[in-house]
């Protein structure tokens, strides 16, 4: 990856929310480079600005100062060029559309041809293991299946970047493990760049090529850990290896250090 | 079927109370007549007489039903005595006014949701417009429009529209704002245009609100039409029927026209209810 321009590049990003109770310093001097094809996890205590930073990358939030480039242009231009698919914590499927209809939504908005839409919907349904569920309505699916459908929706228009904000946060551990494994395969197959927010250390270590540890008030990056685990499919059992434990330990220390700083 | 029993019981209670009230209110007149004729009335005679007066203070239910039956089935539908004829005239104006009012409410709501300036400027006027009693404004509108040569259906439909646009406006502003932050953010991540957000998110989200306000709106349009039919010169419609009934003390005619209006309102609301069921079911939102 040496020499290649980073696909996401944050330099001195600051964000202050003006609220009724005074300013909230959500992000302070955030610097980060993400290369194409990386799987980057953001981990940190609640309120440290993980969501806010992901939303900045998506241009759903505008930094107060600093520079944030996505694919070499400003985040706002990258949004307009439909550079990323965003997966929110809640599936947020439209109840009046079928699963296929929901996945088709971005394709309709982006004016894909009818034939292309149908092909892509089938393709991503297969990718998230939801073949045959296209005609169902969201309420007919379990929470985990709905979340998979929302991932399919984010994948359908084949954006280069996938941004995911605690996509599996509301699911139980078994479903979560399964979806993590599938996500990793999917990432490997599609070669996308993924930004992934999580609260879970094992999840972050299992999935990522880079783990970004953040600390709260004001939200800063305290550590960026490059994972020595293999790039590509990793068996779930990898979580019992010493390498895995060593990275998990380093993340844990990073999180504690952040807390000590705050106290 | 479980629901029908309580409804029947309530109906029965109302009918019994109504007969009691008819007896009580009309008794004075019967006693009066008897005193004038120098005769005595027994209870049986009293009941019979109070229920069969041609111009009772309060007609008994079967008299109203008789009036309704005669008005609907006993007359040629082109006759001025036919409730079908008058009902049709009222329905025509109601539907036109309702369509115009709904369209106006819809367009204003879309404008208000998309423009802060419109939100600030239109809403207060819309609310103010509804604080003016329609009974005061209807005759003025009819008279003013008649003086410029506009008569018949259109002035009345305008009054109906004036009453029906408001519930649609209020309901649709709420409905179009129903999408939550996540849904709106999602549309932003696709860089969807305002029009796309409107047609693919806001309008579908607003449908349950739309149908609720259409039901209120159509009833309001009917009231508006009937009020607009009252001012002097009106000769067709249920409102005119009410008015001529009260000129000549034809209480049975008044009540029959009132019931006709109620039936019309119930049919209109039921029709919207059916449309609602069909649409929401087709959209997978039926509960
Ligand atoms: N729209 C907003 N207006 C005002 N303050 C906000 C807004 N969004 C976030 N904040 C504040 O910014 C800080 C960071 O919030 P953020 O949601 O990014 O945290 P997070 O790391 O995602 O937390 P969690 O793990 O609980 O999701 C918090 O203190 C939060 O209260
Ligand atoms: Mg968050």
UniProtKB/TrEMBL annotation, chain A:
<dbReference type="Pfam" id="PF00005">
    <property type="entry name" value="ABC_tran"/>
</dbReference>
<protein>
    <submittedName>
        <fullName>Sulfonate ABC transporter ATP-binding protein</fullName>
    </submittedName>
</protein>
<dbReference type="InterPro" id="IPR017871">
    <property type="entry name" value="ABC_transporter-like_CS"/>
</dbReference>
<dbReference type="InterPro" id="IPR027417">
    <property type="entry name" value="P-loop_NTPase"/>
</dbReference>
<dbReference type="InterPro" id="IPR050166">
    <property type="entry name" value="ABC_transporter_ATP-bind"/>
</dbReference>
<dbReference type="InterPro" id="IPR003439">
    <property type="entry name" value="ABC_transporter-like_ATP-bd"/>
</dbReference>
<dbReference type="GO" id="GO:0016887">
    <property type="term" value="F:ATP hydrolysis activity"/>
</dbReference>
<comment type="similarity">
    <text>Belongs to the ABC transporter superfamily.</text>
</comment>
<dbReference type="InterPro" id="IPR003593">
    <property type="entry name" value="AAA+_ATPase"/>
</dbReference>
<keyword id="KW-0547">Nucleotide-binding</keyword>
<feature type="domain" description="ABC transporter">
    <location>
        <begin position="10"/>
        <end position="241"/>
    </location>
</feature>
<keyword id="KW-0067">ATP-binding</keyword>
<keyword id="KW-0813">Transport</keyword>
<dbReference type="GO" id="GO:0005524">
    <property type="term" value="F:ATP binding"/>
</dbReference>
From TrEMBL, chain B:
<feature type="transmembrane region" description="Helical">
    <location>
        <begin position="125"/>
        <end position="147"/>
    </location>
</feature>
<feature type="domain" description="ABC transmembrane type-1">
    <location>
        <begin position="87"/>
        <end position="276"/>
    </location>
</feature>
<keyword id="KW-0472">Membrane</keyword>
<feature type="transmembrane region" description="Helical">
    <location>
        <begin position="153"/>
        <end position="173"/>
    </location>
</feature>
<dbReference type="GO" id="GO:0005886">
    <property type="term" value="C:plasma membrane"/>
</dbReference>
<keyword id="KW-0813">Transport</keyword>
<comment type="similarity">
    <text>Belongs to the binding-protein-dependent transport system permease family.</text>
</comment>
<feature type="transmembrane region" description="Helical">
    <location>
        <begin position="209"/>
        <end position="232"/>
    </location>
</feature>
<dbReference type="InterPro" id="IPR000515">
    <property type="entry name" value="MetI-like"/>
</dbReference>
<feature type="transmembrane region" description="Helical">
    <location>
        <begin position="93"/>
        <end position="113"/>
    </location>
</feature>
<dbReference type="Pfam" id="PF00528">
    <property type="entry name" value="BPD_transp_1"/>
</dbReference>
<dbReference type="GO" id="GO:0055085">
    <property type="term" value="P:transmembrane transport"/>
</dbReference>
<keyword id="KW-1133">Transmembrane helix</keyword>
<protein>
    <submittedName>
        <fullName>ABC transporter permease</fullName>
    </submittedName>
</protein>
<feature type="transmembrane region" description="Helical">
    <location>
        <begin position="7"/>
        <end position="31"/>
    </location>
</feature>
<keyword id="KW-0812">Transmembrane</keyword>
<feature type="transmembrane region" description="Helical">
    <location>
        <begin position="252"/>
        <end position="275"/>
    </location>
</feature>
<keyword id="KW-1003">Cell membrane</keyword>
<dbReference type="InterPro" id="IPR035906">
    <property type="entry name" value="MetI-like_sf"/>
</dbReference>
